[in-house]
Amino acid sequence: MFWIGKDVDVFLTQKEFIDTAIVPLAVMDGSPIGMKQSASAAEFLMSLTAFVEQQFKGRIMVTPPFTYTNSMPKKNFIEAIDDELKSAGFKYIFYMTSDHSWTSETPELTVLWLPSIPLGDMDQSVKQSVLSDQLRQVVPMLSAKWAGQ
Amino acid sequence: MSNNRVTRRQFLNYTLTGVGGFMAAGMLMPMVRFAVDPVLQKKEGGDFILTKQKISELTEVPVKVDFTFEQVDAWYKSNVTNTAWVYKEGEEVIALSPVCKHLGCTVNWEGDPEHKNQFFCPCHAGRYEKNGDNIKGTPPLGPLDEFEVKEKDGLLMIGNTRANTLV
Fold this sequence. Notes:
The structure holds 2 protein chains of 2 kinds.
Chain A: H1 5-13, E1 20-27, H2 34-55, E2 60-62, E3 66-68, H3 74-88, E4 92-97, H4 101-105, E5 110-113, H5 124-148
Helix pairs in contact in A: 2-5
Chain B: H1 8-40, E1 49-54, E2 63-73, E3 76-89, E4 92-96, E5 108-109, E6 119-121, E7 126-128, E8 146-152, E9 155-162
Antiparallel strand pairs in B: 1-9, 2-3, 3-4, 4-8, 5-6, 6-7, 8-9
């Protein structure tokens, strides 16, 4: 499910099945060196979360990405988002990111960190197989949480 | 010539009828065009998409076949890759949609090691027989959809989905 009207309608009637939220965390860096890197990381992150959504449409809702700069108090923001999603009824909340700073900063949240791969210049079929490989990394992390109840 | 002179009254009548006719036509033509428009529309639904899968290489074990098409969502164009589970039943080629009938996850062939020869949905452990029939007692409420298939130069072509005809 995506964070769109039609899917949220389904979510509201099927809450016991759609119990997982994925929040993409994308850093926005405007410096001449960091801009390209942050853009291709965001591109990778959005493609990957869309692919996860396609595979697990009936259980996962992918929220709009949380975009931040490194000067923002992002930890406070993300805690507020976490509370909001919990009160919406999501039992499992995953954060997907290519920004390494999250892994150390928020140990109490389930952050799935994946190194970004520049997809920009790739052919459609190559992109597809790269994303499938990445998905294979993500699935065990999801299943482990789901099985742990 | 002098016998057939057009009177002022006649001249005005003809002119007004002519101009009035043009105006009426100008109003009616677009209406008629709108009314018959659905008949003139080109049908886009029946398009088949060519895949890279050779028909001769298919067996009775379902394999994943990817196919890509361009999807236009308002002004946003994107290439969408879909998959199908394709196998041979005798000489007939069968392509099943991987979309779970419960809430739309993607099912996998033998995705659960405990249930061989079945499609498995990882979201809520829904299961389907090889022909797409949903197994009672698991969440899905209907059988997997089927794709229309065609052959072109030995390659598989995949069309629209339709309700499962095998169950």
